[in-house]
């Protein structure tokens, strides 16, 4: 039984390595078509084929990780199951069914909230995330107040509604709102730029 498993793993490893080599070879050929042969239509077809293969391999990897998490869950190995489900949800969010199912297990089976998932379950990290969100909200309120003040100046003719001050203030507000949305979605937060 063990020898069959080892043989299967070796065969899978070899086929994955061959698939990667095949994709790398296809990429080299596509680049030659694009740059040397100047055949952009052929290059586009080749690039699209590579991306399709990548998407299929990504889906396979996500499925394997999800089933690994299921195996750990069935064995009662909570820590390993949680780690694998989290990885599916975080690294394979584009595989929506698997990511949603993983979040569902994490929530219903292991009692983790969305906030805990984003913070990795660490109390200090959860508190820091709450404070970070509160600070972003405060920055948004300040930017809205600044825009309200500028709008009063527009009404009195002090500045143009499309002037640089107004545009800069609106852009700053949009940046902060975008940061809050990214934060809530668990996406990487861009550094805050002080102007």
Instruction: Name the helix and strand elements from N-terminus to C-terminus, one letter apiece.
Output: HHHHHHH
Shape estimate: flat
Unreliable segments of 5+ consecutive residues: none
Q: Please summarize the sheet with the most strands.
A: none
Query: How many domain units?
Result: 2
Radius of gyration: 25 Å
- Helix percentage range: over 70%
Question: Whole-Å distance between the termini?
Answer: 65 Å
The average pLDDT value, as a whole number, equals 79
Supply the number of helical segments. Answer: 7
Tally of DSSP β-strands: 0
The percent range for strand residues is under 5%
Helix/sheet category: mainly alpha
Topology overview:
Blueprint: H1 2-36, H2 40-75, H3 78-91, H4 96-109, H5 114-119, H6 123-155, H7 164-185
Helix pairs in contact: 1-2, 2-3, 3-4, 6-7
What features would you describe in this structure?
The structure is a single chain. The protein has helices at 2-36, 40-75, 78-91, 96-109, 114-119, 123-155, 164-185. By secondary structure, the protein is mostly helical. It folds into 2 domains: 2-112, no CATH class; 123-185. Helix 2 runs antiparallel to helix 3.
């Amino acid at each position: 039984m063990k020898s069959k498993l080892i043989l299967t793993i070796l065969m899978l490893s070899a086929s994955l390595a061959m698939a990667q080599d095949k994709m790398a070879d296809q990429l080299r050929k596509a680049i030659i078509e694009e740059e040397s042969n100047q055949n952009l239509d052929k290059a586009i077809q080749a690039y699209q084929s590579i991306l399709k293969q990548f998407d299929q391999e990504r889906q396979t990897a996500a499925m394997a990780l999800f089933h690994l998490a299921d195996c750990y869950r069935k064995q009662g190995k909570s820590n390993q199951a949680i780690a694998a489900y989290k990885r599916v949800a975080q690294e394979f969010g584009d595989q929506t069914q698997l990511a949603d199912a993983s979040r569902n297990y994490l929530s219903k089976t292991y009692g983790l909230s969305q906030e805990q998932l984003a913070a990795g379950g660490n109390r200090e990290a959860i508190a820091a995330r709450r404070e970070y969100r509160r600070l972003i909200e405060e920055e948004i309120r300040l930017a809205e107040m600044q825009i309200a003040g500028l709008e009063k100046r527009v009404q009195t003719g002090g500045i143009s509604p499309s002037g640089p001050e107004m545009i800069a203030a609106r852009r700053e507000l949009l940046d902060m709102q975008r940061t809050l949305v990214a934060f809530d979605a668990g996406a990487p937060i861009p550094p805050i730029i002080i102007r």
